[in-house]
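quick one, two chains, predict together pls
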Amino acid sequence: AQTVTQSQPEMSVQEAETVTLSCTYDTSENNYYLFWYKQPPSRQMILVIRQEAYKQQNATENRFSVNFQKAAKSFSLKISDSQLGDTAMYFCAFMKGAQKLVFGQGTRLTINP
Amino acid sequence: SAVISQKPSRDICQRGTSLTIQCQVDSQVTMMFWYRQQPGQSLTLIATANQGSEATYESGFVIDKFPISRPNLTFSTLTVSNMSPEDSSIYLCSVEETGADTQYFGPGTRLTVL
């Protein structure tokens, strides 16, 4: 069974700083997908970024980028120029094919003014 | 991505009663999923809702407690039956469009059981 681990329960940075959230996972699969979702206090789960395991190039979405290390089974999220609206819970998730998402325990990120 | 709505957005229920949560999508989707998020916790899959067949439940979840319907490709319901305070959670539906290999979530239903 796949497992996802987020070792940072909480993080706090100043507005405009760069922050990196860590995620490691365990799987015996070769082809899979990794995701970062954001959950603000409104509780809506919002897709931040997606990585396909067969792609070596790290995914990027505007201020959000990932560092995907397949051999190390590591998938960190970097947020550049952080904004107050980035304050939320961030969940790392694993998925193989059209199957369930397996989530980490989440990191609570606070951006301070 | 598909636009997903859930009803109700929140509810407060009495012990022993049942609540049905609706999930509506603005386009036809193959896969629909129901997740539970207990207070301060991560998300756990309850079941996969299959159109035209029985839902597929994860270990620890049973049909008698969480009956699911999927009458067509745009709609599903989850019922939380014979509720107890331990059922107080956020319930979220998600969808995966065919070939997308990505799940998008509805806004969630916050359930409190007294």
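The longest strand of chain A covers residues 88-95.
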